[in-house]
Structures
1.
Amino acid sequence: MGNFDLLMHGFAIAITPMHLMLMVGGVLMGLVVGVLPGLGAPNGVSLLIPLTFALDPTSAIILLSSMYWGALFGGSTTSILFNIPGEPSSVATTFDGYPMARSGQSTRALTLAFMSAGIGALIGVVVITLLAGWASKFAMRFGAPEYFAVYFLAFAAFIGMGSAAPMKTLVSLTTGLLLASVGMDTVTGEIRLTFGLNELLSGISFLVVVIGLFGIGELLSTVQEGLRFRGVASKIDLRDVLKTMAELPRYWATTIRSGLVGIWMGITPGGPTAASFMSYGIARQASRKGEPFGTGRPEGIVAPETADHSAGSCAMLPMLALGVPSSATAAVMMGGLMIWGLTPGPMLFATKPDFVWGLIASMYVSNLIGVILVLATVPMFAALLRIPFTIIGPMIVVICFVGGYTVSNSSFDLWLVLVFGLVGYLFTKLNYPLAPLVLAMVLGHKAENAFHQSMILSDGSLAIFFSNTLVASIMAIGIALLVLPKTLQLGSRLRRRVPVE
Amino acid sequence: MTKTRTAVAAAALMLAAVPALAEWAPNRPVEFVVASGAGGGSDNFARTIQSALTRNDLFSAPIVVLNKGGGSGAEAFLYARQNAGDANKLIFGTNNVYLLPHVAKLAYSAEDLQPVAALALDEFLIWVKADAPYETALDLVEAAKAAPGTIPFGGSQSKDTDETLVALIEQTTGADFKYVPFNGGGEVAVQLAGGHVAANVNNPNENLGQWQAGAVRPLCVFSPQRMAESEPVSGDMGWHDIPTCKEQGLEIESYQMPRTIWLPAGTDPEVLAYYQDALRKVAETPEWQDYLAKTSQTGAVLVGEELASFIETNETGTVKVFEAEGWTAN
C-alpha cells in the first residue's frame, strides 16, 4: 500500500509546530473571509499569495489551503444566520439552514452544517489519498460533451422535483440563463448583451447577484414584516451542540450520497457550488416523507454542506494532477504553485512527493482544526441573532454593499446589489423560486460553452451526447431525474385522484 | 545665433534634468492590473515581477495585484483609459493590448496605453497526443488537407493568439482544421491528453506537465531558432531538441507572444523612466531567471524604440491574418 506509506511520510511533514501554527492561522483568516460575503476564498487566497513568497512551497500551500477550508466553513455561517451566503457554494445551505435558524434552532443548524462539512471534507481527503492515480485518469475522459452532460445532470437533479409552479421555475431559470450570458463569450469571442456599458464587459458577477437577491431581498422582507428578525433567540447551550452531533448518524444515507456527489463534482470540474446544488436536489428527491424541504429540514443542511466540502477537497486533485482547477480558489492556488516553481501535472506526484503528500496530510489535520474552531464559535455566532434588528439590520446592509464592492472593486456592482435586492424581494413576495435563477447563473455559461464546443466537434449533431457509454449514461440519469418524478406524480395522481403533497 | 544659444541652453537644461528624471518614485501603493484572471499566464507574469521586486527591495511602495480579466483582458485596458495619467498603475498583458481593438468593438484604443517594456517572449509549439500518427508538422497539415474541416484543433479563447496561429497555419498551407476554443491553456492541455482534440498550439509551460508524463509530445516550435538548452524534460528529449517549424518545412518563421507592461497614457516621462529602470533590474534577478527557465520563455528586455518597432511588426502581421479571416471589427 504505497499511498499509505506516502501519507504517513506526509504527516511527518505536515505536523510540525510551524505548520500547525500556519494551519490555525489560515483557518482563522479563512473563517473571517468566509463570513464576509463577497470577500470570498479566491480573494482571500490571492491576498495571501505575496506573503507566501518567503515560505517554502509546502508551508505556503498548507497556509493557503487551510485558509480555503476556513472560508468554506465560514461561508455557511451567514447563510444560516442571515440568509446571506458568504461563499457561492453555501447558497444551497440557505434553503433549509435559514428557516431552521429562524425557528429558534440556530445552534442546531450551525452544528449540523459544520459537522457535515467536516465529514464531507474527510470523505474527500480519503478519496484523494486512495484514488489519486485513478481519479486523474477518470477526469481525463471528460471532453466537451461529457462536461455538458454533467451540467445537464446538475440542472436536472435540482429542477426535476421543484415544488414551485413549473411556469414560475421556468421564468426564474431563463432569467438566470440570460444574466449568465452577459459579457464576452469564450467560444465566439463576441460581446453580448452589454448595451455598450463597459461595466458589463466582464459579465454580471454571480456573487453580486446572490448578495442582492438573498441579503438585501431578505432584509426588505424583514422590514416589511415589522423591523425584527423572525428568529426566536434560542437559549444558547453547548449541550445543544453535543445533542445535534448525536443526531447526525440518522442522516447517514444523505451524507454518503452527498459525499459521492461532491467527490464526483470535485474531480470533474463541476466545482463545489454545482455539487452543493446537485446534492440538495437529490436529497430532496430521495428523502422520505416528512416536513417539506425549505422549511428547515436537517437533510437540507447536511446534503449541500457535505457535498460542498468533499468537492472542495477533491478539487485539489485535478489542480495538482492535471493543472485544471475546478474551483476559483483552486485556480488562484495553481497560480501560486507556478510562482513557487512547481508545475502541476501528472508528474508532480512523482517528482515532488513531499509537497503533494505534505499537502494531503495537512488536509486531514487542518480540517480537524477547522471543525473544532468553528464548533467553538457556534454559541458566539448564534448569539448574533439576539442583537436587536435596529442594530444588526444596518450592519447587514453595510456588509452586503462592502461585499458587493469587494468582488471586483467596481462601484457599478453596488447598483446591481440594490437592483437584485428588489428583484429578490419581488420574487419572494410573488412566490417565484430563487434557486433556479442562481443555479442557471452558476452553470449557465459553462453549460453553454460545453454545448457549443460539442456542436463544433460534432458538426451540429446532437448524437454526440450519446456517442459513448460515459456521456450516454450521464445524460440518461439526467433525463430520468428530470422526467421521472413528474411522471410518477402524474401517474399516482391519476390512479388515486388525490393531489400529492 | 540666438536660436543656437536657445538650443544649447535647452540641451544643457535637459542634461541637468537627467539625474532628476530618475527621482520620481511612487508615493502610494502601486496597482498591478492584470489582464487575466487569477492563475492565468499574465497573472503569473505579474506576480513573479511582484515577488522579484519585493524580495530584492527594488521598489519602495507596496504593490497590490488586481485581476481584471473580463472580456479577454479588455477590462484591464479600459481601466487604464479611465485612469489616464495615473502613475501608480501598471497594466500587465500580452499583445492583446493592441490586438483586441481590431477584433472587437471596445471603448478603448491602443493609444490609451503607454508601452513600458516587454520582458519575455512566450513560444508557441504544435503539440499532438503521444500516440498520434503525426511525426512532423507537415504530417498534420497533410492529414488536414486530406480530410478538410474534420481534425479538431484545440486552443484557448476565440480570435486570440491560438486561433490566430491556427488561422495562419491554414492560410500558409491551405489546410483546413476544425478550431475548438476552450477557456485556458491548462484545459486545452488536458483535452489533448484525453484525446478529445487532435492537436493544440499551447505555450511550453501550459503543456509541460502532460509532456513530462508522456501523454502529449511537441512537433515543432514557431521561433527563428530552436529553444534554449535544458535538462531533458520527457525521456531524453529537452526543449532544445524540438525542431523549429521552419526546419520541418512549415513556412512560418516566427510566432511569439510578448509579455508586456503598460502605463495609462498621459504620465510624465520620468515615471516611464522609473518603471523601465525597475523592470530592467527585475530582469536580472534570480527570481526572474528562474521564472523564464521554469516556463521555458525567452527573456527579452524590450523598451523604447525597440519595443515600438516590435509592436508595429507584430500588429501589422497579425492584422493581416485577421483581415484574411474576416475578423476585423471595424
2.
Amino acid sequence: MSPSSAPVSEVPAYNPRNYLNSPATGLRSWLTTRDHKRIGVMFLVATTFFFAVGGLFAMLIRIELLTPGPTIVDAMTYNRLFTLHGVVMIFLFMIPAIPSGFGNFLLPIMLGARDVAFPRLNLLSFYVYLLGATIALWGMIHGGADTGWTFYTPYSTQTVTKVVPILLGAFILGFSSILTGLNFIVTTHTLRAPGMTWTRMPLFIWSIYATSVIQILATPVLGMTLLLVAIENAFGWGIFDPARGGDPVLFQHFFWFYSHPAVYIMVLPAMAVISEVVCTFSHKNIFGYNAVAYSSLGIAFVGFFTWGHHLFTSGQSAFDAGIFGVLSMFVGIFTAIKVFNWTATLYKGSISFKTPFAYFVGFLFFLVFGGMTGIALATVSLDVHWQDTYFVVAHFHFIMVGATIMAFLAALHYWFPKITGRTYPEGWGLVGATLVILGFNFTFIPQFLLGNEGMPRRYYAYPERFWPLNVASTAGASVLAFGLVLILVYLLVSLRSGPVAGPNPWHSRGFEWFVPSPPPPENWEVTPVITHPPHDYHHAGEAPPGGVEPEPRHAS
Amino acid sequence: MAEQEPIARAEQELEHHAHAGRYALVWIALLVLTVTTYLAARAPLPGGWHVAVALVIATAKGSLVVLFFMHLWDQRGANRLVFATSLVFVALLVGLTLLDNATRFPLANPPGSAGALPAGGANREPAPEAPR
C-alpha cells in the first residue's frame, strides 16, 4: 500500500510519453498549450506562489500583533497588510486553487474526455487570471489599499490609497473564474464518456459542477459592485456614500451576495477533494452517494440565501436579519449530510492512514468546529456580541481557510503521484500534516477566545490583557508557517528525485487512477465505457468500469 | 461527443429561419420601452414607485434581448432552466435588499429615499424644556 510500491505487469511505472514532455517540452509549448493538464499545473504553480505571498503578509500581521503597541510596522502599513493578506488569499489563492488547478487537471480525465469543452477559453482563463493578478500586484506595490478585503463603503470610496487598481484586478479575476466555471459546466454536460450517467460521475465532479454554477451566477454581481465602488472613488458619484445620497448598506448587500456564495466557491471544491480521499483511503464506496452529490447542489443553492448574516449590525432591518438568520442555518443541514456520510464511509472501511487521510481528519475537525461556530454566529442575538471581533476572524479561518487548506494539501499529496509520476516521502508528509494542523489550531483557537473577550478585528493596538493570547496566536502561526515551508521543500525535492510512483500507488478505484502516471496528452488511449460508479471496491478483483484495464495501457 | 454536432446544426438552422421582421419588431419595442422609461421617470408617481417601474421596464427590455436577439426563444431544456434560475437569483437579490430598505430603522436609510425620515427629521417632537 505504500505509494512507492511498484506496479504490476509490463506497464512502465513512469509513463514515458506524458503531458509533461509531449508534444514538446519548451516554455513556448507550455505558454501556448491547450492541454487542460498543463493549464491546471500552471494554475497550481501560480496559486501556490500567491499562497506564499498571502502567507508572508499573514506572518507580518502576526508579528506586528506580538506586542500591544507598535512592533515592526506603522498603523497605515498594518492596515495595508491585512487588506493585501485578504485580497491575495481569497481572490488569488483560495477561489482558483482547487477548481482551476486540480479541477482543470482532473475533471476531463474523470469524465473520460480528452480535454475540456473549450480548450482555448481555458487558456484564456489562465491569462485573464495573470492579468488580474498583475494589476492587483501593481496596486499593492504602488501603495496598496487599507480598506480590508471587503472594500466597505463609504471608506473605500474616500481612501487615498490605491484601491482602484486592486478593485480592477479583482474585477478581472472574476472573469477568469466565470470562464473556468462555464468550461466545466459545458464539459460535464457534453463530454461525459459513454455509460457515465449523472449518478456514475465521481463526487469530485458533482462538487466542482456546483462550484461552477455559483461562479457563473454570483461573480457578475461582484464585478458590478467593484465597478460601482471604483466609479464612486474615481468620479465621486453618490451610489454608496451617504454624504452624496448613497447607501453604504446597499454596498454590503451587493458585496455579500457574491462573497457569501464565494465561501462555497472555496469550500465546495474542498469537499470535492475530500469525497475522493475518503473513499480511496477507506477502500470503500462512499456511503450515500446521492445524498453527498445532491447536497453539493443544495449548498450551492442555499448559499445564495444567506448573505444578510454579514449585515446583522450594519443597519440592516431587524426583520431582514431574522429571515437571514434562519436561512443561514439551512447550510448547516447540507454540510451535516456530507459530514455524516463521510464518517459513515469510514465505518468498516480498511483505513490507510497516509498523509492525505491525515488532512481529511484535519478537514473534518475544522469543518465541524468552524461550522458549529457559524451556527452560533447566525443567531442574531449572539452575533451582536461577536460581530467584528476576532471570534468572527477565527470562525471564517476555521471553516473557509482551514477546510480549504486541508483539502488543498490533501489533494496535493493524493494526486502528486498522478500529476508528477513520483511520490513524496510519507514520513515527512505526516510530520508536515501534524505541524500544519496543530499550528492552525494554535493560531486560531486563541483568536476565538480573544474575540469572545471583545478584541475587535483589524485593530493595530490592543490593551495589555489581550497580550498573552496574541502571543499564543503568533506562536501557532509560526508553527503553521514552518510546517508549510517543510511541505514545500520536500515536494520540490520529490519533483526531481522522488521515487517513481506507478500508475495507481494508492490502489484507488477512482477513474483518474486508471490512466498512466503522468497521464498521456490524450488522457485515455481509447474512450472508456463506464459501467460502474467510481470507487466500486466491491468489484476490486474485476476490471474497472467499462472494460478499462486494471493497469492502464500506455500510449507508447 | 459526436451526437452534439447534429444538435448544433439544428440550432443553427433555426437561427437562420428567424425572420428579419421579428428583429425589427423587437427593436421597435425596445425603443418604445426606452421612451416609456424616460416618461415614467418624469411622471408624478408616489413614493418608491419610480424605481419599481424602471426595474419592470428594464427587466422587460432585458428579456426581449435575451429571448430574441440571443435566441433563447428557440432553445429548450437546460438553457431555459438556466435563464429561469438566473431570474430567481435576480429577484432574490433585489427582493431581499428592498425588503431591508422597507423595514429598516428609518434613520438608517439614506436621506431622501423612500424609507427615510423627511429632511431634518421634521416629524420629530421638539425636546421638552428642562425644568428650571
